[in-house]
Amino acid sequence: MHARAAVVDDSAWIAAALNRRREPLVQHAPVFWRSAPDAVSRHRAFLDQLLRDSGAMAYRTDDSVLVAARRADGWLVDDFFVDQESWTRDGRRDLWNAFWPRLSGRPRAVRVSGLRARPRSLRPAGETDITASWWLKELPGSGGGDACVEVTLPGAQAITVPAPRVYVPPGPILFLPEVTNPQQAVPVATGQAHDLGCAAVVVNVEPGDTDLPPTLAKAGFRRHCDYYEGAIRSV
Predict the structure, then answer these.
(1) CB–CB of 212/203 below 8 Å?
(2) What single string gives the DSSP state of each residue in the chain?
(3) Which residues have C-beta within 8 Å of that of residue 181, sequence separation ≥ 6?
(4) b/e code 128-161 from CB counts within 10 Å (16+ = b)
(5) End-to-end CA distance of the chain, in Å?
(6) C-alpha 140 chain-centroid distance
(7) 40-44: long-range contacts (C-beta < 8 A, 24 or more apart)?
(8) Domain 4-130 sits in which CATH superfamily?
């Protein structure tokens, strides 16, 4: 098993492989991650553009793939899938060893809390730190709102954001990037999101914040995903 650089001609295979990774995500958050009926073809079109025009890097083996998108200070590991059997063999190692010589900055990756879908994507290849956690509360029955609406809440600023193109929740997501007063903002956020036709609320929590998580948990939020940054090395 050897990793090689993936190109536009591989986009159909990559989209199909990553669809397997997406299936447990939908079970984990069925409103937030409701897949579009044509999710695979949408994802393929996105990968075509990413690999052709955006300076992204991708590597694949026979059954595993890593896609990294360029960002201002380095790279975002945008998608990472290793078949379960390859996880215990060479798939992880081969992908990282192909990727790491071309790195700059501190690559970033996201891990879904409570899932093995991408459980240790950066950890096998270097030291990593959590830079942010997202807490989620889905709002079944809510939807139909508009994206890109700025919202002022007591104790927080928020904005309604659209889902990535492969997902079709019934409305946008109310995103709170910073909360200055959890006791004021959190109780109001859910009702405001419902009034705005949002399908869910996501709150960004910075490392070391000890006030916000208990307030979120009490209001029915759960820790949804963690963002990691790390210095990558060969495996």
Answers:
(1) yes
(2) ---EE--GGGHHHHHHHHHHHHHHHHHH-TTTTPBPTTHHHHHHHHHHHHHHHS--EEEE-SSEEEEEEEETTEEEEEEEEE-HHHHTTTHHHHHHHHHGGG--S--EEEEETT-SSSTTSSGGGEEEEEEEEEEEEE-TT-----SS-EEEETTEEEEEEPPPTTB--SS-EEEEEEES-HHHHHHHHHHHHHHTT-SEEEEEE-TT--SHHHHHHHTT-EEEEEEEEEEE---
(3) 154, 155, 156
(4) beeebbbbbbbbeebbebeeeeebebebbebebb
(5) 15
(6) 21
(7) 40/15, 40/16, 41/15, 42/165, 42/166, 43/15, 43/18, 43/19, 43/165, 43/166, 44/11, 44/12, 44/14, 44/15
(8) Gcn5-related N-acetyltransferase (GNAT) (3.40.630.30)
Q: 119-175: per-residue pLDDT in tens?
A: 444 444 555 688 899 999 999 999 999 999 999 999 999 999 999 989 999 999 999
Domain with CATH 3.40.630.30 in the chain: 4-130
- Cβ neighbour number for residue 221 with a 10 Å cutoff: 24
**What is this structure's pTM?**
0.86
Structure tokens at 195: 């009034």
